[in-house]
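S., here's the first fold you wanted:
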Amino acid sequence: MDQLGDGGFAVVHRARDLHGFNQEVAVKVLQDVASVDEWCVARFQQELRVMSELSDPHVMPVLDSGTDERLGLWYAMPLALGSLADVVGPPMDAELVVAVMRDVCSGLIYIHRQGILHRDLKPANVLRTRQGKWAIADFGLAKTVVETDLRLTSTTEGFGTVFYVAPEQWKGAKRVDEQADIYSAGKIMQALVSGETPSDDDVPAGRLRAVILRAISKDPARRYGSAAEFLSAIESALAPVPTGLWESPGDRGERLRARLKGDRLVADATAIAELVRWSEGPANLDGEYAEFCRTLRVLQHGSIAWWWEDNPGEFERVMTVFTGLLDRTFDFTLCDGLADFARRAVAVTNDAGIMQRVVTGLTVLGWHHNRWHVQDVVVAILQGIKSEDEAAIAMEGLRIAGRNAVSWTVGSTAVQTFHPILRAGLNAF
């Protein structure tokens, strides 16, 4: 037999079934049974038992099993044409991603209905069958929802594959539920879309992005409730767009504001995702920048806090777009609301980079529009700075805004209430 691979406590060989259909098969062998610990043997036996009871086109079947005096415990399954690990390379076309995930989710739907959690879903464990389907394999870390042998879970806290395992699994593997498998499937989808190992939560822009981000949320309660719901969202994301329909920037903003306004404890994730896509539009958002900023400004403390906690990098990117637009012309009545939103963002995130960009943007905004409320907001932000590092960062933000904008915004009386580094910087500016 030719060895195909090894991992953990087992080895996989290529062999030929001489007693059945004379076909090539993959034989997984637990070698040196006497030398491996009791847990490994129990896990291998459970994997065999689980797979033997499953029958679905999207789950690799067991053809035969047994014990060999020379090889040890073994079981045979059809020889696969490869795994998803072989195709994670350049970013995959969205339609192909949906086709792959349709098979993966179908397999998950089936095993979850049997009361089984996989707990080690990753590209290497999704195999290509001879029938051209993708099928879930390697149930070595699987468990039934009602685990009867506590030995199989008590020593496995935190197991899984680092880039694909759900964060809660590291804390308590025996207490995870279906959402852990959904997280892993989402990470597989991220790898296919990006063409890279999903070492972070940075998902490329596109119609599938919002679906992936929900699936890989750090909070299980924010993920999809089932593999079937996940699959439905995937297919809906790439559903054909109706022709003949067009939404003006004003209509789009009004629709999103209705879903984003209010001090929500949990923001409308779908509306947030659309707001992110809006920010990733053409440079300067063409003629839509005012409507985009008008929509963003409705976010209150609770929604900002949720977004910042859930995906700080994404929020920071949107804030960079927002503050970069503040040197443009706005309706005078809108300026005060933009300043209030920016102040909320600074207060909630307590992030020096966001603070610097807000100081620059609002200083220019207030000067261009002669808005005293905007001036008051900038001064209040500067007065709240207590550390040397933040003072230096804020000073750079003022320098970027320019001498004329700073002179209008910061009077000599206000300067006396600032951190010494800011006072020195402004006096020398």
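And the second, which I think is the more interesting of the pair:
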Amino acid sequence: MTKKDDDRRPSPEALLKFAQAEEEQAGRGRLKIFLGYAAGVGKTYTMLEAARERKHEGRDVVAAYVESHGRRETDALLEGMEIIPNALFEYQGVTLPEMETDAVLSRKPEIALVDELAHTNAPGSRHEKRWQDVEELLSAGIDVYTTVNVQHFESLNDIVAQITGVVVRETVPDRLLDLASEIKLVDIPPDDLLQRFREGKVYVSEQAAWAAEKFFRPGNLIALRELSMRRAAARVDEEMRAYMETRAIPGPWPAAERLMVCVSGSPFGERLIRITRRLADEMKASWFTVYVETPGGSKHVQENRERVWKDLRLLKASEQRWPR
């Protein structure tokens, strides 16, 4: 073997990383995310079109939870699809439908369709968030197709609030994007979306109407659209780099930078962690969070300590690897 041939062999680190990823995926379902930048871009419709194609190919597909909001075109795509009945929860005199996770696990289809990944479940549900139900389905070996808007990802929470003036309360950990085997960007021009909104073709609940008025402004939609495109492009870039690494294809590799963010219980700690996460993603760098407790730390007021632990829990939710 010549030195040139040896240079083209994948590095042991790249092969180990690939093997670890394969091992982690073994026995787990695959996650496909239909990503949009606002309500009404067509995420559910596109997800159902893809599901019908898989069904036509002979795959076992069920609608675990799909919200059509009464749209005829969307309902038409559900025709002939097996639908898992919803679980019903009574809360303050209102009946709330939720995904019947146990029924989906018992049915164990090849592919489960789960709309609105960032949804908060009704009180009394096994999990607080729908993305936690999705994780349970994936752990059981069920592939999941799901929909979500870019503003619901935790690392973008602050920048979305800065752009729109709306703080998004329902968030999803960024690791769900990392876990996804495929991200499908669902996109229409903002002018077309605004026209749909004015025509009443974009469903918005009464509770979210005020937020929608903030989101559905030309400048905001353009900015949110760019965020979704950048996030999808970043994922494609990650896949390209992984492909090149495992095949020893030479290329411009990023510098091995490391980022550190220090937290102290400041109200800005959570924002700093999210900014660091975004920067680390862009730089392809590892990052970690540090909290130093001094001998006088016991004098910290309880509120300060609670902020510190909240910041550290946010880091844990991201499941980042610490540098060695």
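Why I say that: The radius of gyration is 22 Å. The chain has two domains: 12-242, 254-318.

Talk tomorrow,
H.
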